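ARCHIVE CARD
Drawer: 12
Card no.: 0347
Subject: one protein chain, sequence and derived structure
Cross-reference: see card 0346
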Amino acid sequence: MTDDFDAMYETFQALLETFPPSEAVKRLELLGVEQDVIERIRERHEQQTIRIRELEEPHAVVMGNRDTWYTGPQAKDKCWPAIEKLLLKDGWPKEPAIRDLDDSSTRVVSLLNHPKEKAFSTRGLVVGYVQSGKTTNFTSVMAKAADRGYKLFIVLAGIHNGLRRQTQARLVQQLVEPNPSLWSQLTGLDKDFTPQENPASYFGKSNKTHVLCVVKKNATVLRKLARWLDKASDYLKDCPALIIDDEADQATVATKSINPLILSIMSSLPRSAYVGYTASPFANLLIDPSAQDLYPSDFIVNLPKPEGHFGTEVLFGRYALDGEDEDDVDDGYDMIRSVPIDDIPCVRPETKADAEGFEPVITDTLRTAIEYFWLVTAARRVRGTGNPHSTMLIHTSVNTSVHNSFKRPLEHLRERTAKSLTSEAVLNRLHALWDEETSLVPAGEFGEAKVPFDSLLAELPGVLNNCRVIMDNSSSEDRLDYENGPVVAIAVGGNTLSRGLTLEGLSVSYFVRAVSAYDTLLQMGRWFGFRNGYADLPRIWMTDELAEWFRHLATVETEMRRDIDIYMTEAETPLTFAVRLRTHPALRVTAAAKMRSAVTAASSYGGRRVQTHYFHTDADWLRGNIVAAQELVTAAISNAVRLEDRSADGRYVFRDVPYDVVTNFLESYKFHERSPENDPDLISAYIRKRVSTAGSLRRWNVAIVGNPAGESFSFAPNVAVGRNVRARLTTNPGPGTVDIKTLMSRRDAAVDLTGDTSKLKEEDIMKERGAQLPDTGLLVLYPIDKMSEPKPAKKTRAALNAEEHVIGVGIVFPEPRDRDSTVEKYISADLSGVRIEDEDLSLLEGEDA
């Protein structure tokens, strides 16, 4: 009986090749299958769809009750099994890497429409990480869609020839070559789309092959494709099409030519699914959902970070989000090296007018970065594992003439170094550099063994002999080519190296490019990705300001992905939620044109913890905050219902202080301008709104938290505690500014709670606050020693070295018991003091090259 049922279920699966699930069931009824058998078939199919919908990863936000018709690969499939076989051959482990890829690509395909539906126009977005395998994911999606009957595949592969060619090569290798009889190609490695004769030969019923077209986002190319598809319209009614938009935030959103052309191509395809792929979805999430555009109205999929991936947070660290314990948020690996501000004019012209005739100077910092690259390449040769290529990226300007100006001095440095490998002074310098870097990032922490200097020394002459200096930009003929044996290259470039293109074996980056937007900045991080066999060795040289921007960006990224995950669990859809994007005082979220439909999100402080981590170091600014804190404590002494003196433990608590004492303090205390989330006007407005509308936050507990072992700091007569030590991060966010990252500990957020709170986690503390102090806010003052030397083990920290002692402030708001009050404020970036280079998008409009 079971065999009969299994055979009937196989019949149902065969019907699914031709009909959506609901139609397939009707066909079973027409075939006279008994109703109880049909119910069992539906139940089994439903169990399979539930498994797909409830996959732990990837998370997805989905519009409505989309029919989960696709339940995974089948035995007769050809395209996906070929990819799986290739990946296994390339050394991908079955668990977890291939299983995770299988699950995530199955989830995306399950959100597409059944290819036999009469008409559909789907819009989705897949959010990945920079250099994290998005191409492999969408190739797998294409393979599975092809196995189920999708016919036309259009891949929009960035705006540069390099990325288009790289994408075409990958798709040919993984889709076409394993099954050449199944595919027809409209584009080739060296040719973008050119109109083909006789569309019937591609789309007629006699042609059963899948059609592959990989094009740049170039107006001339897309117009040709749009016109050709219009001519083929008679054959496209029965042609399910999948459009993959790689780098979907680039050129697709709010462009005068590319955006309408993509929409035009979609309109000529009655059965089409558009899926954008990007690691920087800021622009895509700001499209007006009500417009006839490419807002991901049907689904957003949040791909998990693959194991072993070097992302923004891993390299730069990030700040804690609401509800997180500061101690659980890492500072990042010690792989970032500082480029002094004084070096910038030596490697980048001050203005566009200075670009012509610019001659770079190989500064000490740049020379160190290059020498370290040669040492790393030699060490990797000694290890003999991982990626055979070794690349260094130098990115200082978008201007091609500036790139070209580096060739002569870099080649001269290479030749001079090769001749001086017998010099004791040079060898001592290289030896010292190697010992210093390998001590800062021990190889053992990454499961590797340190390569002794003497071992890599034998490889250095060969490395220098093999090293090429390549100018890779839109006007150069000498491009990075990883297809003809191992490459050792110092690549100097701009936009062609700053998005999508994979720099194989990237070990060292020297990056001082000035950019204005989150997405541009994030995409320029070619150093993100996988570093198998040399995870201990990558280094990045950049300015301290850029490092701070990337740290902020890591926080924005994490918060954005958390929003997607949260809304998924709350049964929201892409049309009922909007992902919030945290702002920055010196960066735009994306290009201004892409933010026309954006609105300022309402801010609620309910249940949040706000704290200061940026401070100026000049005495006048700091003294002003000391006075504000002393006035607050004096007012708290006069107005508190009860004072708790815990000075032996370095603490005081003033209970039930009126709210206006707190708002008065917020008017006089100066928050650093780099902390838009610590806006005193916004916080005060929220407090007053809660007081007037809900009767909450009328009373506050004011606490002082000090270090019992520190030097004394007095807030008022008989109210003194020891000063805290809070070392600064070694990255410098700007002249006269320090970033301590962490101020408030988990324990401090419970300073006014009764009972034993020492073992409570962050979420438990907020629950306990809700039980004990449901309407009471907490404000904590921290006196911080102006020197604040770090512990020796803290390699990413340095002495505070402020001119006066620092007052830190932490504020904890209770979770609201009713609909929370919100306040709004526009926060715009002041770019007047920042020299910005915008991405050159002239390639979108020009004739195809």
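Annotation on reverse: The CA atoms of residues 39 and 622 lie 73 Å apart. Residues 544-569 form the longest helix (26 residues).
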